[in-house]
Design brief:
Elements: H1 2-34, H2 37-57, H3 64-90, H4 97-120, H5 126-152, H6 161-181
Helix pairs in contact: 2-4, 3-4, 3-5, 4-5, 5-6
Length: 187
Amino acid sequence: MEPVLLLVLLMLLVAGTVVTGTVVGTRRAVRALRSSSTVRRAGELGGYATLAVGVARHPARVDRTAGVLAARVTAASVTLQREVAVARRAGAHLGEVPTVLPRLADEGFALSRALRLVTTTASDHSTELHEAARAHLAVVADVTAAVRASTALPAAHGIGDEAARVAADLKAYAGAYRDLVRPLPPR
C-alpha cells in the first residue's frame, strides 16, 4: 500500500507543479499583452468603431466636438510618437521628452476614451473635457515642434549652441507639461 500512496503523492506533486507553471505563464502572457502598444491601439480602434456605430444609430444625440477632439488627440499622440522615433533613429538630443512621453501618451489615451464616451452620451462635464483636450493638444503640439526642431539640427560631434538651446526648450516644455497636468485643488 505504501508504494501506491507514494506514487499518488508524487503524481499530485507533479500535477501541482504543472498547474502552477501554467498559471504563472498565463499571468505573464496576459500582463505582456495588456502592456502591448499594439493591443492598446487595437482597443482604441475598437472604441472608434463603437463610436461610429453610436453616431450612426443616434445622430441627433451626438456631440461632434467631442468626437473630433478624440480623433485629434489620438492623431497628435501617434504623430508625437512617430517624431520621437525618427529623432531617436537620427540620434537627436531629446532632453526630457523620453521620460515625459509615456505619461503624455497615457493622458492622451484616457482623454480620447473619455471624449469618445461623451460623444454619444449626455454629460455634464463635457466642456471640461473639451478644454482638457485642447490643453493636451497644445502641449503635444509644442513637444512635437521641439522634437522636430531637435531632429532638424545638423549632426555634430559636440553639442553646439543651438542644440543646447533646443535641449533647454525641451526641458521648458516638460516643465510646462508637468505644471499643466497637476491635479487641481478641490473646490
